[in-house]
User: Fold C2H2-type domain-containing protein from Cyprinus carpio.
Amino acid sequence: MYILFCAESAPPTPQTTDTPPPSWQPLANHGEAGKYCCLCGAWFNNPLMAQQHYEGKKHKRNAARARLLEQLAGSLDANESTGLRRSYSCSVCNVVLNSIEQYHAHLQGSKHQNNLKQHQQ
Assistant:
């Protein structure tokens, strides 16, 4: 999996593909060697460094979190859905969770489901 490069003017939006980027294009202010993973905020000096990053644990974890965040975007507050955060809050249950994975598990849990039913009545 490879992450395509971000535009300098746009907020970082990961775009995943199963194939490598078609070419190594220079990014503004970083020259031809400056390659960037929008998802992790990592710069690469050469294609081998980028490939190692994309195959690494940190990138795979961030990619999985980004996919989960995209799936949960409808249930997050507007300020939480803009990117990966250090905490996620559930206003229905009045709890704060430390990760998107915990937030997802919380939404599936029986306490949240019961509180949601009471909140909707």
User: Anything to note?
Assistant: The CA atoms of residues 5 and 36 lie 6 Å apart. Strands lie at 2-3, 16-17, 35-37, 42-44, 88-90, 95-97. Residues 1-33, 78-82 have pLDDT under 50 and may be disordered. Residues 78-120 form one domain.
